[in-house]
Amino acid sequence: MLQQIRLRIIGIVTTAAILTAAVVHAQQPALFREYEKEYTTYPFSDPNPVPLLTPVYPYFRFDGFTTTPVQQKWKVVELENDYIRLLILPQIGGKIWTAIDKKTNRPFLYDNKVIKFRDIAMRGPWTSGGLEANFGIIGHTPNCATPVDYTVVKQADGSVSCYIGVLELLSRSYWRMEIRLPKDQAAFQTRTFWYNASALDQPYYHWMNAGLPAGNDLEFIYPGTKFLGHDGESSEWPVKDNGKKISWYKENNFGGYKSYHVFGKYAEFSGAYWHDTGEGMVRFGSRDDKAGTKIWIWGLSRQGMIWEKMLTDRDGQYVELQSGRMFNQNSEKSSLTPFKHIGFAPFATDSWSETWYPVSQTGGMVKADASGALNLNRKDGRVVFTYYAVKEISDTIELTEGNSTRYRKAIHLQPSQVFTDSVTINGNAGNLTWKLLNSNFTYDEDPKSDNLSRPVHTPADFNWNTAYGQLVSGTEAMAMKQFDRAEKAFAAALAIDSNYLPALVKYAELAYRSMRYDRALHFARRALAIDTHDGAANYFYALSNAATGNQVDAADGFALATLDPAYRSAAYTELSRLFWKQHAAVKAIVYAAKALEAQPRNIEALQLLVFMQHRAPAAVATSADHSVGTPAQAIETIRLLDPLNHFTAMEAWLQQPNAANRDKLNTVIRNELPAESYLEKAIWYAGLQDTVAALKLLSVSPVNSEVILWQDALTHKKTDPAKADLRFSFPFRPETYALLTRLRNQQDHWKWQYLQALLLQAANRSQEALSLLQATGDTPDFAPLYAYRAALAAQVQPGAPGIPADLQRAFSLDSSWRYRKALIAWYNDNGQPQIALPLAASYAKSHPADYIMGMLYAKTLLLNRQYAASDAVLTKLNIIPFEGATEGREMYREAKLMQAISAIQQKQYRKAAGFISAAKIWPENLGVGKPYDQDIDLRLENWLSYDLSARSGKPDLRYLEAIVAFEPKVDNTVRNFIPSNAAVNEWTRKELQRLAGTSGSTAKAASTLLASAGRDGAAEPHTATGTASPTADSNQRIIDAVGALR
Fold first, then answer.
1. What stretch or stretches form a coiled coil here (predicted)?
2. In whole angstroms, how large is the CA radius of gyration of the chain?
3. How does pLDDT run across 475-532, given as a tens digit for each residue?
């Protein structure tokens, strides 16, 4: 059986080569080399020791960014053949930093000559350039700026592969990507292998992100009829409803940031072409591998172009070509549309591949695949077509018009060679078909060819308040790790129908995730009482029984779960583990084999098989009828799938602990958090009752508090709390929670309470976590505990009396900026800015370059109504922004307008007018660029200008006209309006009514404006996502102050 699985896997691994096989001349094998290269680098720093209260936990953020560069050496893996050269940086997420087309000696991916980290990713640092793989829950992968595991392999076919990957802690899954450069192609492939190593459904998110140089000659070549936004909304492509042909970069000179998930055709490629230089690039992936395509543009106003200097020194602006497994990068609101999330099934494996290559002298593309790209257009009564070959090809071109063959010619092309020809055809456009007869390559000129009829709108009468509607809401929340929201939705579903089986099952799953195993059993049993054969109900019934020690019911549940194909392989895997722990080795091996029969690439089952074969060789012979093969065969199978597999390297060292095997182990674990890699597998071995192996692995792991806890627990020692350094110790595994429970029963200590509270909060048990932290009192001498306890209390019990005391205690233990900031922010948010001011002022004066605290100082001055002083502070700040941040500009505007209001109160109208004019400026030292004028909500500024004119005795209706004319809208999930400015429309309406009741030309003009404004003022769109406008709090304070003038 294992040999058959191996053969199937070999077939999967080599499919691309078999499908594109052609007669080729002998080329030199592709080469690789590793070296260090010095780059001008703007590094990141200052990791946050306070645990995060977001789904990004157990990762931590980095908060330090700089405008001062250093010269830093970075590890480079270079792959090269006769056509392409790739530079890969394994210490920066394994990003392909650039790709060079040797034909033109120019990069076809954005080649950033500097490494300039900025606060953009979920953990903070990210840098533009090249091609990156993203996994996690949303956005850039948690490891996009830090080292990943990697290895380089010379393949038997002459290609060379660099494998990158890491253990992804958010989902306890392992992702790997092979970057493969064939010896005989002007292209490279990325082949992703991703497996869920856990028994639970996990978030499923993946997008590739290729940086490309921006330019007015850049055309995005994305077949489609519509584009989707992050919220699942749709609009027209390639010509938008505003008449702009947005497939051209230069035509995006409107609005803000752009996210176009192009959709609507059965397409398998996307690309870009720079018409001035005659160069382009192509990404190809089969439809089942990559259905999602996206374009990201920072925007062409200064709002977006400011990022050019933020992310590079001299290489210009960039755009992004992205590809994903799903149609869009779906935000929370996308759940209300057809474009929902999916999950990653227990112990499931997924894989896909893409091809990336340059093109030149084609004039663009209309169709591309892994072998080459075609452009075809009509000019002066002739059809001109150009084909760019990626690999050597011998084929015949056929061009037909309707049923008539108009052209046929045999071609033989070498990689990167271009073939161009033309034929006279005067018929109507849309009736041509261009083919390569020996290949599966056909282009149909009909613009409606390959159009999809897939719906893009959810039925308007879909009722979200039904049991099913709430189930969908909860399931979507779980996919985003929003477990609290999921629990509320499932509870709402069961309130509607207490016997709604799918909601009972999901509640059981959620309770199991939160380590409330008795509660999980309660819901699973209720579900089984309705349908005793339900696969999911049996699976979570079994998991919960296994967790509570009821092995009989666990085995029974897993056995029945195998009836459901969705849970079959996972259930067999768990049965294998269960019987091994019962010392029933034969049964355990049999069930591991069955798990592989159900899912041949189940890595967990393969690892169990190797583990058990090494430790119970006699049982293998007894189970020979299942043809499990030898341990060496299973190991080879794993390595074929995952050359970076930690288990095979660990097992080799455990079986033969020599220097060579130790070195091999070091070569597959090179990531940012190696202790987590060792812990993951040591806990795995301990769970299979191999304490010796677990301890050996922990003995070579980097040391942290969790490593020490496990070492002591496995040797039945009491852990000395003094040995446990809690800095950057963020446990997240249920196994560690159980260990801490046992430890606390033996010797309770505040450190164990703190660690267990972190686990409880991550498991959606925030109230219990807070109670546990509160029980530690003020004994701990660890500042992050108090900061975390205060943040958690603010989330669970807003206004809790102990919050300021905790923040003060944290600050007394550690006076660094982070704890000072938290304390100042609390005073500001709770109506005590006068107490915050001296704390902010003293730090800002001694640390003038700290823009984070400088911004907080400016805000504190604003809240203390010291507007001129705040204005002065902001003038001197140089803010390094984060994506979407506008706070510096918001405070600047507030400071100016509040000074204007003060001047009006003092009847200093000219001075007030100056402040209003200044409020319209966008100083870029504040880290924000100016949007297009039509995307700036100036209603409040215009009202103040009108007020000034009225006070001067000459009311200028042009300001009221501008207020009425402003069009609030949401475009591509970004709004152009400030919601609280709706009050200005109401003021305007009332003022126009007053003026209309007077006499003369002013009355007539007011009546006309009043008619266009409507009786109820301008309607604001309901959807108001995005951060392109100032925050409600800042604007509301100004609104309140203006209201007092009236």
1. none
2. 31
3. 999 999 999 999 999 999 999 999 999 999 999 999 999 999 999 999 999 999 999 9
Q: Is 451 left (phi over 0), alpha (psi -120 to 50) or beta?
A: beta
Which DSSP helix (H) or strand (E) runs through 687?
Answer: helix 674-687
Q: The domain containing residue 537 runs over which residues?
A: 465-566
Q: HSE of 601 in the Cβ direction (CA atoms, 13 Å)?
A: 19
Core vs surface per residue 839-862: b (16+ CB within 10 A) or e: bbeebbeeeeebbbbbbbbbbbbb
How many C-beta atoms lie closer than 10 Å to residue 658's C-beta?
10
Please tell me whether residues 90 and 144 are part of one structural domain: yes
- Residues 415, 394: Cα–Cα separation, whole Å: 11
Give Cβ neighbours of residue 447 (< 8 Å, ≥ 6 apart).
430
Helices 887-905 + 909-919 axis angle, to 10: 170
DSSP, collapsed to helix, strand or coil, labels residue 305 as: helix
**Shared domain check, 525 and 422:** no
Final residue of a structural domain among 341, 358, 377:
341
Q: Torsion-angle region of residue 343: left (phi > 0), alpha (psi -120 to 50) or beta? A: beta
Distance in angstroms (rounded) separating the CA atoms of residues 683 and 675? 12
**Quick check: pTM over 0.85?**
yes
Token couple for 648 = 């095979």
Is residue 60 in some structural domain?
yes
Q: Are 469 and 430 in contact (CB under 8 A)?
A: no
Average pLDDT of the residues in 419-440: 93
pLDDT in tens, 347-401: 999 999 999 999 999 999 999 999 999 999 999 999 999 999 999 999 999 999 9
Q: If we measure between CA atoms, which residue out of 287, 413, 283 comes closest to residue 358?
A: 283
Q: What is the mean pLDDT of residues 127-139?
A: 95
Residue 399 β-bridge partners: 407, 434
